[in-house]
Write a structure and sequence with these properties.
By secondary structure, the chain is of the alpha+beta class. Helices cover 21% and strands 29% of the residues. Strand 1 and strand 2 form a beta hairpin. The longest helix has 29 residues.
Length: 450
């Protein structure tokens, strides 16, 4: 065969081989394409340093280098940016999965107005959500949903909370610790799924939180990074005002996870006392007479388990063992806290007004009219895979009502003298299984029972 013919045949074979091989090359190149995740997800709100500031928080998988919110009453004509852009958050698990947390504060909002907003960057935007601002004064009646211990699996209360939030029933939500079960699990994917699930609540009303024991992993890093509470304490303790109520959120976990240092207990206790002193200044207590605290692990409970609230010397109540220092029951009593909200026990329990295991009802006929001590309420039954909590066979005399039903608490602060509470049962398809009024014509320090 002539060399020229050989060259032509070889060229033809190479051409055919190239054509056959090209799709495989392209497929291999396609397999190497890196998918980027610039779309915002897990959108949620929180109060800023006042009820006329709103902090919008969301996540992206990849770094967009900017964090923007467009918002407004008539349209999306206003713009707010984070001056620092997103913050990288690295999960402590084996994969060291990284995501980017975005925070933008919307300031100088008009009171009693409905705002529409979306968030993102030039690389991708969220859907458009809405929220309604509140009054900066105290002469209005806020309504809240309150619960703890809600997981990704068996989140029994979530459908009702989603529906009622979309109907405008609530001005805010308080989640009293224990999220997702647990946010750190599966390299943080369980936390991501939980935040997606609650977005239909938390993107429309302020979702105020406190830390629980299920957030402890990696020094509470998922909790401190995912949420954006006011006060600058990494979400651990803070306060905010709504209508006639001064709310105080704090960490009970400082008392249990002391490997992170005892200084956190001292720092929080000092802050709590300063905040309570400020709330009790005559001009402040007159304007917002109700003081309501929320923390995860209760001082009292009547559950048949090994939790220390069933025991007499609860560490949150009495303080550090052997020292009896930094206990919160004397502190809250001294400064006239009206109601103490708890979770941790997967149940609902309402106590009579109580201090140091002694009941101080206002009267036999009207125990919650001018009571002589704080009222403790546990609402930790929003639903998770751990199930329900059993109760003691013989209930203590300070327990007024208890239920194992999954459900959540509603609060309406009617005015300076009347609070209304009701517990909703998911088991009974939204039936109110307990309700009561707290009535006070005078607020402040209680009598001397110390």
């Amino acid at each position: 065969m002539e060399p020229l013919h050989q060259l032509l045949m070889l060229s033809s074979l190479l051409l055919v081989a190239g054509i056959c091989f090209m799709p495989q090359v392209l497929a291999a190149e396609q397999d190497k394409v890196q998918i980027v995740h610039y779309q915002p997800e897990q959108v949620h709100l929180a109060f800023g340093e006042s009820v006329l500031e709103m902090v919008v928080t969301w996540n992206t998988r990849d770094n967009t280098n900017e964090s923007i919110c467009e918002f407004g009453i008539e349209g999306l004509q206003q713009l707010a940016k984070s001056p620092h852009g997103p913050t990288a958050f690295v999960d402590g698990g084996a994969k060291k999965a990284t995501q980017y947390i975005h925070r933008v504060t919307l300031t100088k909002l008009e009171a009693n107005s409905t705002y529409r907003y979306h968030c993102g960057s030039q690389l991708g935007w969220s859907a458009t959500y809405w929220f309604r601002t509140q009054f900066s004064h105290s002469d209005w009646s806020p309504s809240l949903a309150i619960y703890g211990d809600m997981g990704v699996v068996n989140a029994a209360s979530l459908p009702a909370l989603q529906r009622e939030t979309q109907r405008g029933l609530y001005d805010a939500v308080i989640h009293v610790g224990d999220f997702a079960y647990d946010m750190c699990n599966e390299n943080g994917e369980v936390g991501d799924e939980f935040m997606r699930q609650v977005e239909t609540v938390a993107a429309y009303v302020p979702y105020m939180v406190c830390v629980g024991n299920h957030e402890e992993k990696y020094n509470f890093s998922h909790y401190t990074n995912r949420f954006s509470m006011p006060g600058g304490s990494e979400n651990m303790f803070y306060s905010f005002n709504m209508g006639p109520v001064h709310f105080i959120g704090f960490s009970t976990e400082f008392y249990y996870f002391t490997q992170y240092g005892l200084g956190q207990i001292v720092m929080q206790y000092d802050w709590l006392e300063r905040d309570l002193i400020e709330a009790n200044r005559p001009e402040n207590r007159q304007k917002r007479p109700w003081i309501i605290t929320f923390g995860h692990r209760p001082m009292y409970c009547s559950n048949a388990n090994s939790d220390d609230c069933t025991n007499h010397e609860t560490v949150v109540r009495k303080g550090l063992p052997f020292l009896d220092m930094f206990g919160l029951e004397p502190l809250f009593y001294k400064y006239g806290v009206d109601v103490e909200l708890w979770a941790h026990e997967h149940c609902y329990e309402r106590m009579w007004p109580m201090y140091n295991y002694t009941v101080y009802n206002g009267s036999m006929a009207e125990p919650y009219v001018n009571p002589g001590a704080p009222i403790h309420i546990i609402s930790g039954a929003a639903g998770n895979h751990e199930g329900r909590e059993p109760f003691l066979e013989r209930m203590p005399p300070w327990s007024a009502f208890h239920s194992q039903d999954f459900g959540y608490l509603r609060l309406q602060a009617h005015n300076r003298s009347h609070l209304y509470f009701e517990q909703v049962s998911d088991d009974k398809k939204g039936e109110v299984i307990d309700h009561f009024w707290v009535v006070k014509d005078k607020h402040g320090a209680y009598g001397s029972h110390l």
